[in-house]
Amino acid sequence: KAVVYWMRMEDMRTSDNKALALASGTAQTQGLPLIVLFALTSQEYKIHGRSVRRIDFVLRNLAMLKSEFAALHIPLYIHTHSGRRRDLPEKLLKLLESWNVTQLFANMEYEVDELRRDLTVLEKGRDRTHKVKPTFVHDRCVVEPGMVANKQGKAYSVYTPWSKAWLGIIQSRPDLFDPYPDPDPNDPSIKEHELYGTLFDSPVPTSLEGFICEDAAHMNTIWPAGTKAAMSFLVRFLQTKARSSQCSMDTLPPAVEKAKPKPKAQTRETRLGAYANQRDRADLDSSSRLSPYLSAGVISARECIRHAIAFQGKRDVRYVDLKRDDGAGMWMSEVGWRDFYNHVMAAYPRVSMGRPFQEKYADVRWEVDPALFEAWKQGKTGVPIVDAAMRMLNERGWMHNRLRMITAMYLTKDLMLDWRLGEQYFMSQLIDGDLASNNGGWQWSASTGVDPQPYFRVFNPYTQSEKADPSGDLIRRFVPELKGLSGKAIHDPFSHLDKAAFKKLKYPEPIVDHKLARERVMRRYKNPGDD
Ligand code: FAD
């Protein structure tokens, strides 16, 4: 007999992991061996438009986890499923039967297909003679979906009241932040399994068919795998200063081995301390850059918040104010958006099916213009901040939140192209691609989502540029054609340079006129279905 923890691509860590803690606790009390199972499902990844970078990140994390689990004397077995995705539950149950598994533990995934898959596992498991008892638990969010409800018991669709209720729950239950116990490598009650030899020797694939990552080496340098790397990004955010004079997007976190948070009195100069005022500055590298690690669950959101609170000298979460002008509260509120979008996805499955949350905007008429879409993708729109951001996405697989908002708003409102095209393109490039947050961000920008930016508030990309990149460093770093410019010209060279000087730059003219585009979007949203 054996107990299995089924690890998913959103909970790739050995510590502070609820399903793993439950599985190892059960193995311990029942004196059974513990096996960790991971299923690589290429068809699923393709259907969900997962980027090759994200899959490569999964594989790199799996390689590290293999040895981390081995050090805990637990085998990690990777099942590569190349067939139809609907056959996966049956395949896995057969595998579990062959191992004589009695109990299966997994953290829940809230995407509609994944929920259906887990329900099939539950149903099929129940119908068989060899019974595997599956247990699915909540771990992805700080507060589990369904717990934050309004007075009528319904899910919220607006962030501010939701966040008040969310914080209320957290403050009345500081235990929500308690870490789950790590598996104990010296536990004598955990037994050897006859298959352990084979399972320990099973290989971790270095690539997956259909997901060849051409810039894998570069991604490995800027987004190293593993919990230690995640911790080093966290330490960098909590302890180091955001540079104020030059674009520091190329700095890497401190050496991974040194990364251990050491709480001490914080000044407002650390990234965390300055976050309340600087979080919208895309040129200062002012945010944590933890999203790839949080999306893959390489570190838990609980752990991040625990450290942030300690660093700001707060005794515990009861002393945090989400609106106060200090970094910890503001940062916690941003991590809250991650919970919020997961709660929305769990409560309103239509958002993971390509539908707008606000059904009244389902008939907005979008332009069909592959050339405009291509210019946006390649960062050749003639709007410097949009181009810098898109080139950054293509080069790094990541963008600052403000840049995501600017580029998404530009695609949907200035180019009037369908938000789903942008959502898919982001997903195909991002290393932190996550359905709930990506869809939430796109629908916010397109004004079709929960708590969206109202349609009549259209970002002016040039004034946004002056706010997000006042120094122009970010644009100069990613748009080398403009590296000789400064002042107003860096944000809008077409309007601020004479014709000859502009021509010399070999930089495109703006592909649309912002003022006209703004009028068009007003018409189309006011009367969806009309021209
Ligand atoms: P920090 O500012 O340090 O925030 C800490 C963490 O809080 C983040 O790592 C993230 O987990 C969470 N967070 C912060 N802001 C948000 C937000 N607005 N929504 C949800 N979670 C948030 N985030 C993803 O993780 N994956 C995506 O695929 C994704 N797509 C997006 C698409 C659009 C159009 C927009 C507008 C936003 C998207 N976001 C996405 C949210 C946000 O932009 C990123 O989480 C953030 O930029 C990551 O940088 P950071 O880790 O330095 O964030």
From TrEMBL:
Query: Where is each Photolyase/cryptochrome alpha/beta domain found?
Result: 2-142
Keyword Cell cycle appears in the UniProt entry: no
Q: What InterPro entries does the entry give? A: Crypto/Photolyase_FAD-like_sf, Crypto/Photolyase_N_sf, Cryptochr/Photolyase_FAD-bd, Cryptochrome/DNA_photolyase_1, DNA_photolyase_1_CS_C, DNA_photolyase_N, Rossmann-like_a/b/a_fold
Parts forming coiled coils: none
Q: Which UniProt keywords apply?
A: Chromophore, FAD, Flavoprotein
Q: Which Pfam families match?
A: DNA_photolyase, FAD_binding_7
User: Which molecular-function annotations from GO does this UniProt entry contain?
Assistant: deoxyribodipyrimidine photo-lyase activity; DNA binding; FAD binding
User: Which GO cellular component terms, listed alphabetically, does the Swiss-Prot or TrEMBL entry include?
Assistant: cytoplasm; nucleus
Keyword Ribonucleoprotein applies: no
Say which domain of life the source belongs to. Eukaryota
Enumerate the cofactors the protein uses. FAD; (6R)-5,10-methylene-5,6,7,8-tetrahydrofolate
Please cite one Gene Ontology biological process associated with this protein.
nucleobase-containing compound metabolic process
Annotated residues that bind FAD are located at: 275, 287-291, 331, 334-341, 432-434
Q: Where is this region: Disordered?
A: 248-268
Q: Where is this site: Electron transfer via tryptophanyl radical?
A: 366, 419, 442
The record's cofactor note says: Binds 1 FAD per subunit.
Protein family: Belongs to the DNA photolyase class-1 family.
Protein name in the entry: Photolyase/cryptochrome alpha/beta domain-containing protein
The species is Botryobasidium botryosum (strain FD-172 SS1)
Q: Recall the taxonomic lineage recorded for the source organism.
A: Eukaryota, Fungi, Dikarya, Basidiomycota, Agaricomycotina
